[in-house]
Write a structure and sequence with these properties.
The longest helix has 13 residues, at 2-14. The strands form five sheets. A five-stranded antiparallel beta sheet has the order 5-17-7-8-13, with no helix packed on it. Strands 6-9-10-11-12 form a five-stranded antiparallel beta sheet, with no helix packed on it. A three-stranded antiparallel beta sheet has the order 14-15-16, with no helix packed on it. A hairpin with an 8-residue loop joins strand 3 and strand 4 (46-49). The termini are far apart. The protein is globular. The protein is mainly beta. The protein has helices at 2-14, 53-59, and strands at 15-17, 23-25, 34-37, 46-49, 66-69, 73-76, 83-89, 113-119, 125-130, 134-139, 142-148, 164-166, 171-176, 214-215, 345-346, 350-351, 383-387.
Length: 388
């Protein structure tokens, strides 16, 4: 009994649970969102941040060495490396603000994507240039990949997708235009932003807004499909889904990496038997996000797994999938590389802001009504992946 008492005393000095339920390790309670992580035998656990779905996707590239850039930089080719695989994404266009008593704002277009294998020699410097108008990958005087930015929305007209091109020497690659932003027309809700182009093909278009006085914003486009158009909101549960890597979305559900969604049922993910062939796409296996009949006024879910589109404004859009369309009770959501969702609107009560585009995704348009106008979401910055 004496031995047990001593062990408990030692434990209380390093790991305590106080009366309010807060966990303390070595006197530290960590910060919101952190979890305890084991440091191995004999070492005290440490508070660490939970990796985002985007970070998880990069980790799933396995033994492939990779570099990711969201600002201009250079990459020095390591020894023994004679080929790199690069992916360039243009910036997304901004979503437009709503126009009072006229229309919601439209979504911005997704940035273009150019990618493929580039022959290199050890010690060469690869120059990555990322600006608001284009993203390029060059060595010396030769520009191998060019991905242009998506167009900004103007009023109720969606922005066009950015174009892309590659040098003829780039092999096993392609160049695809980003998805167009969703229009708003005479709607109160905003259109969804378009997704960037990708190795899947042309980016998914953002969903259009809805003309009802109580409506959801259009869902953001994903790499594999378009976002759902805005819906006439009959309850706070109704949301427009975002497109995922594998397919388009539907009411209350996002497209997954394996298929499009059906009404209220999320698209499924991919299994080991049908993984994507492209190394950047291979880790994207997530199923679509779905509302699951949980009121999004009380539930805010964290970033969804790579590959899906958000099915609710309560689900932050997944990496590479579009954000779910905003309901009457929540502003638009964003996602990595997918388009942000458009903002919803409710009669004369309120108008919701559009969600921001993830990297290279177009921003969602803002909602409007006779008394309120909401802002559009910002377009995502350009980006470059290098695998070697």
């Amino acid at each position: 009994m004496a031995t047990k008492t001593a062990n408990l005393a030692q434990l209380s000095n390093t790991f305590d649970v106080n009366s309010s339920g807060a966990v303390s390790v070595g006197g530290s309670t960590g910060t919101s969102g952190q979890v305890l992580t084991s440091q191995g035998s004999g070492a005290a656990p440490q508070w660490t941040a939970v990796p985002s779905a985007f970070d998880t996707a990069l980790a799933l590239l396995g033994n492939t060495r990779n570099q990711f850039y969201s600002a201009s930089s250079t990459f020095t080719v390591p020894s023994s490396v004679t080929s790199i695989r690069a992916y360039a994404f243009g910036a997304g266009g901004a979503g437009a603000a709503g126009v009072a008593s006229t229309s919601g704002g439209a979504g911005g277009g997704g940035g273009g994507c150019a990618y493929g294998d580039i022959a290199v020699t050890p010690g060469q410097t690869v120059t990555i240039t990322i600006s608001g108008s284009s993203t390029t990958v060059a060595i010396g005087a030769t520009t191998y990949l060019t991905a242009n930015a998506g167009g900004a929305a103007s009023g109720g007209t969606g922005g066009s997708g950015g174009t892309a091109s590659k040098d003829v020497s780039v092999t096993n690659g392609g160049a695809y235009t980003g998805g167009a932003g969703g229009s708003s027309g005479s709607s109160q809700s905003g259109g969804g932003g378009g997704a960037s182009g990708s190795p899947v093909g042309i980016g998914g278009a953002g969903g259009a807004g809805n003309s009802s006085s109580n409506s959801t914003g259009g869902g953001g486009g994903g790499w594999g499909g378009a976002g759902q158009g805005g819906l006439s909101a009959t309850s706070s549960l109704l949301t427009a889904g975002g497109g995922g890597v594998g397919g388009a979305a539907s009411t209350n559900a996002g497209g997954g990496s394996g298929s499009a969604a059906n009404s209220n049922q999320a698209g499924v993910g991919r299994g080991l038997q049908n993984l994507f062939n492209d190394p950047l796409l291979r880790p994207l296996t997530g199923a679509g996000g779905c509302l699951f009949s949980v009121p999004d006024t009380s539930v805010v879910r964290s970033e969804a797994p790579p590959g899906l589109g958000g099915g609710s404004a309560g689900i932050v859009g997944g990496s590479f999938g579009g954000g779910g369309g905003a309901s009457q009770s929540r502003s638009g959501t964003s996602s990595m590389f997918g388009g942000g969702s458009g903002g919803g609107a409710s009669g004369t009560g309120f108008a919701q802001a559009g969600g921001g585009g993830g990297y290279a995704g177009g921003g969602g348009g803002g909602g409007q009504n006779s008394t309120n106008v909401a802002s559009g979401g910002a377009g995502g910055t350009g980006a470059v992946f290098i695998l070697y």
